[in-house]
């Protein structure tokens, strides 16, 4: 029976992202679990930091959420709907992703920025491209080749490209780990600003505990493919 709500009140919203008993096992001959029995939820506007040692399964978790890999157990819900019921192209419009390195397409910076919306039949004007680039400190870069960009500039383009789809969720897979210290600080500050201004819902994988403490509302700690802690940074990091 559905839950009844008092007159004049809206029904409760689903969490934006929810993982239920989520797992992934490699096929034979390996038969190794990358992730097992993962359960957590992410509310709208929340930044969830995901931390843990190398090889713990953090990147594997993001790949399952965006269906770059498929789970062998459990499921991922996006606003209450099983992501397996959503067409992959539509899912990746609603769930954007930024990787450790900026994998930009051949062509120009502007063509990279316009790629997502044009895949969905939406027009993107030159003025819109220029405005988006100006917001991330790359005014005048639209006609440049990605091959001419520094690592930090490439990540700014990758972030802008992901956000042009107006995603409901942004997955960040260690977006500063491949950068030098100056570029790292610039990208971290840029992400913090964009998250704040847009009220973005993010899952942010990082090895940098200071970064996690500074920017995450809650932390998920993964070790050996399992969740070992979930809560506020000040409580989780002091364990």
Automatic annotation (TrEMBL):
The keyword Cell division does not apply. CDD domains: ABC_PstB_phosphate_transporter. InterPro entries: AAA+_ATPase, ABC_transporter-like_ATP-bd, P-loop_NTPase, PstB-like. Coiled coil: none annotated. GO terms for biological process: phosphate ion transmembrane transport. One of its GO terms (molecular function) is phosphate transmembrane transporter activity. It comes from the Bacteria. It comes from Acidipila rosea. Keywords: ATP-binding, Nucleotide-binding, Phosphate transport, Transport. This is Putative ABC transport system ATP-binding protein.
């Amino acid at each position: 029976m559905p839950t009844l709500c008092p007159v004049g009140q809206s029904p409760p919203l689903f969490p934006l992202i929810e993982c239920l008993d989520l797992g992934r096992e490699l096929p034979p001959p390996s038969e190794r679990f990358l992730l097992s029995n993962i359960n957590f939820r992410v509310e709208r506007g929340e930044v969830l930091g995901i931390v843990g040692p190398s090889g713990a399964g953090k990147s594997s978790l993001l790949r399952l959420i965006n269906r770059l890999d498929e789970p062998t157990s459990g499921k991922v819900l996006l606003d209450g709907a099983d992501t397996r019921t959503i067409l992959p192209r539509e899912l990746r419009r609603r769930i954007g992703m930024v990787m450790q390195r900026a994998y930009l397409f051949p062509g120009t910076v502007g063509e990279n920025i316009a790629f997502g919306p044009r895949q969905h039949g939406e027009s993107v004007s030159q003025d819109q491209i220029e405005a988006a680039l100006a917001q991330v400190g790359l005014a005048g870069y639209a006609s440049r080749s990605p091959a001419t960009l520094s690592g930090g500039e490439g990540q700014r383009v990758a972030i802008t490209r992901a956000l042009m789809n107006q995603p409901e969720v942004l997955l960040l897979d260690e977006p500063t780990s491949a950068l030098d210290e100056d570029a790292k600080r610039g990208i971290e500050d840029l992400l913090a600003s964009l998250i704040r201004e847009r009220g973005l819902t993010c899952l942010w994988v990082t090895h940098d505990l200071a970064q996690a403490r500074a920017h995450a509302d809650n932390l998920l700690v993964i070790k050996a493919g399992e969740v070992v802690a979930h809560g506020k940074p000040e409580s989780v990091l002091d364990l």
